[in-house]
């Protein structure tokens, strides 16, 4: 059974905790995915934006993340390491079919590249939601996701009906278990971020993407440039103003405690077999679970 939420990451964010994510792991990198299933990470981001988008491979990647020993020890179906998938299309491309096929494989959320417009963000939310019952408080934006009941409910360990109830986007549905995290990684995204967060309640987190942001600013990949850092902190400030968790990526030798003190709620750590950065981050926030 599931005690509390199906999605541990949403549970931690709702409690005001800091989430530590490994990201990104190429879809199909089974050995590393299996090793990470035994780690203390809260989340993993499976990468399909810059590698091949292949649904059968994604299904296998998700299966390799299952850890039966952890499930037995916890006595719950809630995964210890929660899988999200970074999809290929930019959010403004509104490719709902990619969102549909990805969610039908069973992940607990999506990472949305170049989330830079209200229209694109709203389209992503609609594509991720099943049609809602008319008249309910969270009806809008009305869901468009097609009803496929085989793989995702099986992966979550629930019936199709239970999956329908659980697999809505948070915090639009306060009890939802799907996390949509938009990456703000260009100057247009920063300009539009206040409107996105004010008008699109289904975007549950924002990732301040310094790499592409540096290119957008004419700095050609210099993600450590002071102007890029200032832009990243501006994204963080906007997220704080709207009560939306903000994510940032850190280098293996980064001062993780500083990022936590600044207010970042999701810390994205590069994949590595050595977990020193993760250990330091968890120590910085007093996590012992």
Automatic annotation (TrEMBL):
MF terms (GO), sorted A to Z: aldehyde-lyase activity; metal ion binding
Coiled coil: none
Domain HpcH/HpaI aldolase/citrate lyase: 35-263
Record flagged with keyword Ion transport: no
Assigned keywords, A-Z: Lyase, Metal-binding
Family: Belongs to the HpcH/HpaI aldolase family.
Organism: Tectimicrobiota bacterium
UniProt lineage: Bacteria, Pseudomonadati, Nitrospinota/Tectimicrobiota group, Candidatus Tectimicrobiota
A single cellular component GO annotation: cytoplasm
UniProt entry tagged with the keyword Nucleotidyltransferase: no
Designated name of the protein: Aldolase
